[in-house]
Amino acid sequence: MLYIYKGEEIKKIDRQAESLGMDSFTLMEAAGSGLFRQLTDDFETSKQCFLILAGKGNNGGDGIVLARYLKTAGASCTLCFPAGLPKTEPARRHLDYYEALGYSYETEPFNLTATVMIDALLGAGTSLPLSTEMKNLCVWLNSQKAERVSIDVPTGASTDTGNCDSSVIHAHKTYIVHGYKPSRFLYPAASCYGEPSLIEIGLPQTARWTISTVSATSPSVQFKGSNAHKGTFGHGLLIAGTKSMPGSAALAALGCVSSGAGKLTVQTAEEAVSVIASHVPEAMYDFHTGVEDAHSFSAIAAGCGRPADDAMEDIVQQLLQQEKPVILDAGALAPRSYKAAKCSVIVTPHPGEFARMTGKQTKDIQLNRIQEASQYAVEQGVTVVLKGEYTVIAFSDGSGVVNTTGNEGLSKGGSGDTLTGILLALLMRHSSLEEAVKDAVYLHGLCADIWKRNRPAQALRPFNLHDWIPAAISEQKERGD
Ligand SMILES: NC(=O)C1=CN([C@@H]2O[C@H](COP(=O)(O)OP(=O)(O)OC[C@H]3O[C@@H](n4cnc5c(N)ncnc54)[C@H](OP(=O)(O)O)[C@@H]3O)[C@@H](O)[C@H]2O)[C@@H](O)CC1
Ligand SMILES: Nc1ncnc2c1ncn2[C@@H]1O[C@H](COP(=O)(O)OP(=O)(O)O)[C@@H](O)[C@H]1O
């Protein structure tokens, strides 16, 4: 399991560790030795010339310990403090020890050369904008012909949001201490991390946000039932498609019947049936509007290929009064309250739809996707699937996951409809809503990843996505996480 921590949470963890007897000096030692091990895995240290640029905080302290390990191992390494000597107590003590061993440091970097430059200037304690001195250092570092390795967070990137200073370090690699920071998954900061590696420092993992995985024993990939019949795996209702957008309903229905739905009824426009039925003969059709309170469906999805109009709003209000879980997508998404809903609600907006739901700007949402989705989920008591690269899944208890499967092959109209269908099928037979949602997003992305292993991403059609569901399920069943 991989974990995500905000900057404040890291500070709290350090304080808690200290109060339990694990002091920051020891944690810094653990970080530095972990960084050294990762560096020796990634580089033949005897053939490299290292320059470590250390800041005044604990990020710089990690750099001091790393410098000591490199020097002790006989590597060519220069430690430099271009912005002043360390101010924090553990970093100062590590510098004292470093000097006691007879090692020296520089304070003026601009004439120094190296093949690998380590950015230990700023980490989880960054506040933007950068000072002019820090900006100049970053500009210089980015211009050097050397491998750039950042410690924890590339200097100039925010820890908790996608914000970056214009002179942010573009790292080739980032060695992330203890757990991921949100900016690793938020653009533009995410693009500055290069290849990330995690450095364990021996502290227990306590984050409520994790990276999504699918368990090999999850009902999403296991399909068992003694004496099973079609009723065992649930009956889904998909309210989707219009005369002008029958394809959305077809894509969602395909995703659903390919993911283990026992039965599927599609509530749609009569004119859409021939298109949907030609692709999904398994489905049944219904031309009513919404559902009675006492219906027999196991779960309901609404909105694919439907406009966000008054008719859709009436249907959504009906759905919120019945008790089976409801997925709201596309035309079923609107600015409204879910606080009086009698059922579990999952909203699956892309960033534009989430902006419409919240009245916020899309660009502000994108910079702060984890926080924005989480806040909405907690306030409204719903599950939010905020789609896009690194889809964010936020639960109403404040926990959540970030999904790392999927690729640009999915960036096409219709990919999201398939996800809604997969989600409906999994929700129908899962006892855990949380597991159903995160598994559906994971498997949907994995379909695109399997495709991309041997085929060009641009040639992936949303219509073909469902063909890869069997491979995604089998792969995850064998591998599990
Ligand atoms: N449990 C863990 O994960 C552990 C994590 N550890 C490590 O600790 C790191 C966090 O250390 P941290 O809290 O000392 O903050 P850090 O990033 O060094 O920055 C503070 C310094 O930066 C300065 N500064 C800030 N913004 C600036 C700006 N815009 N422009 C210029 N300067 C700016 C600020 O200056 P000030 O505002 O005080 O004047 C202060 O001097 C973390 O990333 C990880 O590497 C390990 O040691 C082991 C345990
Ligand atoms: N670059 C990408 N990386 C990973 N997933 C992506 C990427 N681009 C799009 N996706 C996924 O594709 C789907 C697109 O959904 P959506 O925008 O609702 O499309 P539509 O409404 O046309 O079906 C979402 O699940 C989204 O997370």
UniProtKB/TrEMBL annotation:
- Catalytic function, reaction form: (6R)-NADPHX = (6S)-NADPHX; (6S)-NADHX + ADP = AMP + phosphate + NADH + H(+); (6R)-NADHX = (6S)-NADHX; (6S)-NADPHX + ADP = AMP + phosphate + NADPH + H(+)
Name the cofactor(s).
Answer: Mg(2+); K(+)
Keyword NADP among record annotations: yes
Domain YjeF N-terminal spans what residues?
10-209
Q: What protein name is recorded for this chain?
A: ADP-dependent (S)-NAD(P)H-hydrate dehydratase
Question: Which species expresses this protein natively?
Answer: Domibacillus enclensis
The alphabetized UniProt keywords are: ATP-binding, Isomerase, Lyase, Metal-binding, Multifunctional enzyme, NAD, NADP, Nucleotide-binding, Potassium
Report residues binding (6S)-NADPHX: G305, H350, D417
Q: Name one Pfam family in it.
A: YjeF_N
What Gene3D superfamilies does this protein's entry cite? 3.40.1190.20, YjeF N-terminal domain
Q: Where would I find the YjeF C-terminal domain in this sequence? A: 213-476
EC code: 4.2.1.136
Q: What class of enzyme is it?
A: lyase
Q: How does it assemble?
A: Homotetramer.
User: Which taxonomic lineage does the organism of this UniProt entry have?
Assistant: Bacteria, Bacillati, Bacillota, Bacilli, Bacillales
Q: Which SUPFAM superfamilies match?
A: Ribokinase-like (SSF53613), YjeF N-terminal domain-like (SSF64153)
What Gene Ontology molecular function terms does this protein carry?
ADP-dependent NAD(P)H-hydrate dehydratase activity; ATP binding; metal ion binding; NAD(P)HX epimerase activity
GO biological process terms on file: metabolite repair; nicotinamide nucleotide metabolic process
**UniProt keyword Lyase present:** yes
Q: What family name appears in the similarity comment?
A: Belongs to the NnrD/CARKD family. In the C-terminal section; belongs to the NnrD/CARKD family.
Q: Which residues bind AMP?
A: K387, G388, E389, Y390, T391, G416
Which PROSITE patterns does this chain map to? YJEF_C_2, YJEF_C_3, YJEF_N
CC cofactor note: Binds 1 potassium ion per subunit.
Return the PANTHER family for the record: ATP-DEPENDENT (S)-NAD(P)H-HYDRATE DEHYDRATASE, ATP-DEPENDENT (S)-NAD(P)H-HYDRATE DEHYDRATASE FAMILY MEMBER
Highest taxon of source: Bacteria
